[in-house]
Design a protein that fits this description.
The chain contains ten helices and 17 strands. With about 300 residues, the chain is α/β, with parallel strands linked by helices.
């Protein structure tokens, strides 16, 4: 049995046995004195581990502001923050069963996911593309016909690739990876021709790779992916605290400062600057915050 399958089964088992905190997440945090943040290990620059194995990134900084707002809302002098590592496959079940209170990573807000969780206002807009070795001369979906490709398990990107493969009869062999780092390594080793993922995550992985000049990211964008902090479903009181905090960060310029810090400045651990200016789509969201999963809302 593959490790990714074991991880998913473990998460599902937790869902089956753990208490569900669909309501009253603020009460849970108040009574326990602790808030649990789900984080990723290689979603650069949103949520990843630095050289001391501590989670850092754009989404982590947004969540730190939310923690302070929750502490103030509850009138607490101290609030312990528990960091919980999650993957693309475990982030939703661990949020639903109360193991984590917020997922601070790179999660796309989709209508399908809103059946299980909800989302804060969008804080980034990205798109599905693929990365490949320049030496492979692969530049389009047509070039990937009949080849093995990879994407991270549990992502909207692997679902899109699967659908496009069927609809366009591409004949691709699509394999799942446990995380983004494993997917890029698989392409680097020649066991897959391309890796489908959100373009900003691909840019972060390439920029921090051993030789960024070896890689190309496809020019064609295949989807619109609105990123947001993931929240528990059906908890309006908790959602209001989270959403109001993010809207306030957009209004007073805090979010713009964080954007500049993580997308237009050197970032740890290699002091790479992604040089990724804020898109017109995100500027529109900052001016008029929305938690819509509809791609049309971002055009």
């Amino acid at each position: 049995m593959k490790k990714t399958t074991i991880t998913l089964f473990t998460a599902l088992a937790v869902v089956a046995t753990a208490p569900v905190y669909a309501d009253g997440r603020l009460e849970k945090i108040k009574s326990s004195g602790e808030i649990a943040l789900g984080h990723r290990d290689s979603s650069i620059p949103f949520s990843y581990l630095d050289d001391k194995q501590q989670p850092i990134g754009y989404s982590m900084d947004i969540c730190k502001n939310i923690v302070e707002a929750v502490k103030e809302k509850l009138g607490m002098d101290k609030l312990n923050v528990k960091m919980v590592p999650v993957t693309s496959s475990t982030r939703i079940p661990l949020l639903a069963n109360g193991t984590v209170d917020l997922n601070c990573g790179s999660s796309t807000n989709t209508k399908e996911r809103q059946a299980q969780v909800t989302f804060a206002p969008t804080t980034f807009v990205t798109a599905t593309r693929f990365v490949a070795k320049k030496s492979s001369n692969i530049n389009s979906l047509e070039d990937l016909k009949g080849k093995t490709v990879i994407s991270t398990a549990g992502t909207s990107n692997i679902r899109w690739a699967t659908g496009a493969n069927d609809q366009q009869k591409l004949g691709m062999n699509i394999i799942p990876a446990k995380d983004h780092a494993e997917a890029l390594l698989t392409v680097n080793n020649g066991r897959a021709a391309a890796f489908f993922m959100d373009d900003i995550l691909l840019a972060g992985l390439v920029a921090t790779s051993r030789d960024p000049s070896e890689w190309m990211i496809s020019k064609d964008a295949y989807t619109v992916e609105p990123y947001a902090i993931m929240e528990p479903k059906d908890d309006p009181e908790f959602k209001k605290v989270v959403d109001d905090t993010i809207k306030g960060m957009m209004k007073d310029g805090t979010l713009a400062e964080l954007y500049k810090k993580w997308f237009e400045s050197p970032i740890p651990p290699k002091n790479v600057n992604l040089n990724w200016p804020m898109s017109e789509q995100l500027k529109k969201v900052v001016a008029n915050p929305t938690d819509s999963p509809d791609p049309a809302a971002y055009k």
